[in-house]
Amino acid sequence: MSEGNEVAGAAGGTGGAGGGRTVRVVLVDDHRMFRTGVQAEIGETDRTGVEVVGEAADVDQAVTVITATRPEVVLLDVHLPGGGGVEVLRRCAALAAAPEQPVRFLALSVSDAAEDVIGVIRGGARGYVTKTITGTDLVDAVFRVKDGDAVFSPRLAGFVLDAFASTDAPPVDEDMDRLTQREREVLRLIARGYAYKEIAKQLFISVKTVESHVSAVLRKLQLSNRHELTRWATARRLV
Question: Whole-number mean pLDDT of the chain?
Answer without folding.
Answer: 83
